[in-house]
Amino acid sequence: MKKHIKYLSILAISTLATACSSSQADNESKAEDQPFELSQRLKQELSLAPATLEPIQTQLQLTGKVMPYEDKQVKVSPLVDGVIEKIHANLGDFVNKGQTLAVVHSSEVADVENQTVSATSDLLSAQKNLQVQKDMYKAGLASEKDVTFAQNDVLKAQGSLKRAKEVSSIYSVKNAFYTLKAPISGYVIEKNNAISDKMSFHEGETGAFFTIADLSQIQVVANVYEADIAKVHVGSQVEVKLISYPDKVIKGVVNKMSNALDPETRTLQVRINMANPGFLMKPEMFAQVNVSYSSSDRSIAIPSSAVIFDQNKNFVVVYKDAKHLEVREIQIAKQNSNKTYVISGLKEGENVMNKNQLLVYNALVN
């Protein structure tokens, strides 16, 4: 009897264990059968990109450098010979329009001062003579012709004084000193190494004292080899990268192309005009310029940011709806920083995830 009871107890425990195991297996099977669905957060952050059929854009890599905008720089030279009294600006300084750059002592500007003084004296004499002629005309002692001649003398004297003052203003003359002023606001990007305080100079020999440039706009000048000229034209889209800011990509277009090759390097210069907020780009910085151009071939295109590289293969996550997503291997024809051109694995019009796709990829393949 005891043996029979013991057998029944073992049988009951065995049956219960089998039932629990079966229930757990059923739950796991149900969990496995349950389809993947995007979480609420991923739905809110969802970003999709359509696969479109486009001409394949290829990038041509050029070398170049940052230069001042050609229409916004000026060389500042003295207009007279003399001795430099004091230099007030140095390389790299920012100067405002009209700011003093240097003061020069010159005998030539002393002559300008004398001309102004002489013209002023002549005008006073002519005005006094005109008044005398008018008084004499009223008294019948002078003719109308005499008054007219006196009036003409005043006009001539006024003209001479005006010219003398204009010359004096150009030279900024005061006590035989000539002030060299900034014609525009900007940075001093060049300073003549030959000049110094108390140095005598000849205007035609010394050359420009300073070069001032407005660097709020700059140009990137790049060189195109002869074999690649047909791939570049005015309006071509470009991406500029600088050694100083390797993670920063600055977009622009080709604004100007030279019409003459450099005979030594066999290259053609192209210019890209760009805004320079914060003056981050400095003259003479080296630049890498990537020029985009279209080929005659067409292919399915998606953003490069949507591509997942894993185990030496390329994948995308194809989105149909929140419950229907598929990891798809793709074959790439060409790829640049913006777009990837696909040979196979995608059809035109299909949508691929362009944000958080790596999270979904890991959930689907693991």
UniProtKB/TrEMBL annotation:
Q: Which UniProt keywords apply?
A: Signal, Transport
Which Pfam families does this one have?
A: Beta-barrel_RND_2 (PF25954), BSH_CzcB (PF25973), RND-MFP_C (PF25967)
Is the keyword Transport in the record?
yes
Instruction: Please tell me whether the keyword Protein biosynthesis is annotated for this protein.
Output: no
Start and end of every CzcB-like barrel-sandwich hybrid domain? 73-197
Q: Which residues form the signal peptide?
A: 1-25
Domain of life of the native organism: Bacteria
Where does the Multidrug resistance protein MdtA-like C-terminal permuted SH3 domain start and stop, copy by copy?
A: 300-352
Q: Could you tell me which residue ranges the CusB-like beta-barrel domain spans? A: 220-292
Q: Per the similarity annotation, which family is this?
A: Belongs to the membrane fusion protein (MFP) (TC 8.A.1) family.
- NCBIfam families assigned to the protein according to its UniProt record, in alphabetical order: RND_mfp
Q: What is this protein called?
A: Efflux RND transporter periplasmic adaptor subunit
